[in-house]
Structures are given as C-alpha cells and as structure tokens.
Amino acid sequence: MTCVGESLLIYLLQMTDNIPKVVACITVNSDRTVVCSVDDKAVPASQYNDLVDGAVQQLSQLVNLMARVKSWHTDVSSRSFRFHIHTAIAVLESALDTLPDTESAEFRKISFIMEQLQVLSLYRSL
C-alpha cells in the first residue's frame, strides 16, 4: 500500500528477475470511490459494483474487492465474458478520446465496433 497525493493505492506486485511490476491495483480516492486496474488496463466499474457501488462504506467491501482483483490477475479464467467485453469497450472509448475528428473513418469504425460489442454483451446476458 502507498499513498500518492490524496489517493491510497493497494497494489499487487509481481517480481521477474528481481524487477517489480504492478500487475493489479485498487486506487481509493479521497472521496472513497475506487478505480481498479489489472494487467495495465482499467477495469470497468460494472465489473465490481456488486461489491463497491460508489464510495467504500465498510472495510469488508475493500477486502472483498482486493480478493476479486487478485483472482482476476492470478486466474484468468475467473474473468467473465462480460469482463472482457466491457474492458474492450473501455479501451476503445479511450481510443476515441484521442481522435480529434469525430467524422473520420477511424472514429466511425471504432464507434461501430463498440456498438457491436455492446449488442453482443446484451445478447449474451439474455
């Protein structure tokens, strides 16, 4: 655990050849909201809002979230279909934010892929 500014970072380190790497992290902001990441990718809040929806109210919420984040890293099969789809959508949204021209072919293609992933996510949840 480390404090950076007004945020608390709870992280999982992996050592390879004596070189540490953060492989998973929970950031607890000053307003007690959390952001999770695994393998250098932000995890959409929809994947853990059953544990923490909004601000952390109890320590047990944080303990349960720590266990889930660790399992996402150590057991890739614990990541659901929805986890992968929502993570892909979040990554594509970040890509869209880097494109200055909302009328460009790249913007339209990425938007289309995101729409298709959202439809697939809805279809799989039925």
Textual characterization of the structure:
The chain has about 130 residues and is of the alpha+beta class. Helix content is about 45%, strand content about 25%. It has 3 helices and 5 strands, in the order E-E-E-E-E-H-H-H. It has helices at about 60-75, 80-100, 105-125; strands spanning about 1-5, 5-15, 20-30, 35-40, 40-45. Helix 2 runs antiparallel to helix 3. The radius of gyration is 17 Å and the shape is globular. It starts with a strand and ends with a helix. The mean pLDDT is about 90.
Strand order of the largest sheet: 1-2-3-4-5
Oligomer: single chain
Cα distance spanning the termini: 40 Å
Residue stretches low in confidence (pLDDT < 50, at least 5 long) are: none
Number of strands: 5
The total domain count is 2
| Strand composition percent | 15-25%
Written as H for each helix and E for each strand, in order along the chain, the element string is EEEEEHHH
Relative helix content:
40-55%
